[in-house]
Amino acid sequence: MGNMLQSRFTQKNFKLLCNVEKFIFYAVNNSLDDSNDYFQSIMDFCYADIDVEKLKVEALMIVDFYQSVIKKNQMNIKQITKISTICEILNSCEVGKEMFKEYHKLINLYLTIPVTTATAERTISTLNRLKTAIRSTMTQSRLNLCLLPHIYKEKIDKIHPRQIASKFISSSEKRQHFFDLIL
Fold first, then answer.
1. Is the same domain home to 34 and 77?
2. How does pLDDT run across 17-36, given as a tens digit for each residue?
3. How far is CA 6 from CA 2, 9, 21, 68, 180, in A?
């Protein structure tokens, strides 16, 4: 599980999504210091869906909009730290959606990114291929033991068979004695 998390967070697109998320927060909290990096990430993230020039203009005004809505609705918010808060404030005022169309589009695109479903979908597909009519009588534990190597095939291919054999043999004195006799 730890390796899957590590590989997910080192993927090329993860940094891009982090920059888009930082932009979304920095725009409403008025701390756009390295905005060119963020706009480049946004162009890479959704080059055909967002007009970045309009978004740059909106980014200059959006903090005032959020502060005025917070004051008008008497919300006790000093800094916005959740996407849900951003959406709640934006949805509370129809004028905001119209004024900040590109920003609203960016939030919608960001929220529709499938973050964790790909691995689960691959696992289900693998399960369908693995559990055929002949194998439908196997127990759950055996099915799991067959499924894991099938899912992580590329990682298992990197392991040398002698490494597996030596670990198996060294796990018990009885095995060490038995395989020492054979070898």
1. yes
2. 788 888 888 888 876 655 66
3. 6, 5, 20, 41, 39
Residue 78 lies inside a defined structural domain of this protein: yes
Name residue, tokens 């005032």: 64
Among 62, 83, 111, the domain boundary falls at 111
Same domain, 22 and 60: yes
Nearest to 24 by CA among 99, 81, 71, 93: 81
Domain that holds residue 154: 120-182
Within a 10 A sphere around the Cβ of 70, how many other Cβ atoms?
A: 17
pLDDT higher than 50, residue 1: no
Q: How far apart are CA 110 and CA 178, in angstroms?
A: 58
- At 80, phi and psi to the nearest 5? -85, 125
Q: How buried is 153 (Cβ within 10 angstroms: 0-12 exposed, 13-18 middle, 19+ buried)? A: exposed
- Angle 77-80-82 from CA coordinates, rounded to 5°: 120
